[in-house]
Design a protein that fits this description.
- This protein is mostly helical.
- The protein contains 10 helices and no strands.
- It folds into 2 domains: 101 residues, RNA polymerase sigma factor, region 2, helix turn helix motif (Rna Polymerase Sigma Factor, Chain: A, Orthogonal Bundle); 75 residues, Winged helix-like DNA-binding domain superfamily/Winged helix DNA-binding domain (Arc Repressor Mutant, subunit A), CATH 1.10.10.
- The longest helix has 23 residues.
- The chain is 72% helix and 0% strand.
């Protein structure tokens, strides 16, 4: 029988590393998806995932259970992504892509998150990749908070209430940000719709 998040958190608080490992395995892909959507770089997203789980482990005692573990973990992820973006803006570096036109990572993020068993025909793969690239580019142009609300709602399927807990803002603010983000994306991707 599968243990609940609450049971795993309690066991991890008591020092059960396997319980925390189970939480990690349960949520690592979702955290990676959000991180990747926020920063558009596999290496940075992997750093955020690592930082998120380290911070979660170190602060398990601070998790009060007022929201789900999943919501709490996503709040940490979004905050880490925003912090990384701020840090990069204050301390810019020249990546391989900037200098030579090559991406910073050899691994496109759709492949990082893809199910290894999911195979489609080559034409559909190319079409999907092109559409995915266009959508990713449009999302990357959003502000961090608009990007977060789109990813949490449209990719992760969180409710407005859960998003408001993750982003620590009102439900009305979530709805407003979501409306704005959707309008921006609709404008950028109108030829695909």
């Amino acid at each position: 029988m599968e243990r609940t998040d609450t049971e795993l958190v309690e066991q991890a608080r008591r020092g059960d590393k396997e319980a925390f490992r189970e939480l990690f395995e349960r949520y690592q892909k979702k955290v990676m998806s959000i991180a990747l959507g926020m920063v558009n770089n596999v290496d940075d997203a992997m750093e955020i995932v690592q930082d998120t789980f380290v911070k979660a482990y170190e602060n398990l005692e601070g998790f009060k259970g007022e929201s789900s573990f999943y919501t709490w973990l996503f709040r940490i992820t979004v905050n880490r992504a925003i912090d990384l973006r701020r840090h990069r803006r204050r301390n810019p570096t020249v990546g391989l892509q900037d200098e030579f036109g090559f991406p910073d990572s050899d691994e496109p993020y759709d492949e990082v998150l893809a199910d290894p068993e999911a195979k489609t025909d080559p034409v559909r793969q190319v079409e999907s990749r092109e559409i995915g690239t266009r959508v990713a580019e449009a999302i990357s142009e959003l502000t961090p908070y608009h990007k977060a609300v789109i990813l949490l709602r449209e990719i992760e399927g969180l409710s407005y209430e859960d998003i408001s807990r993750v982003l620590q803002c009102s439900k009305g603010t979530v709805m407003s940000r979501l409306h704005y983000a959707r309008k921006k994306l609709q404008s950028k991707l109108k030829d695909l719709l």
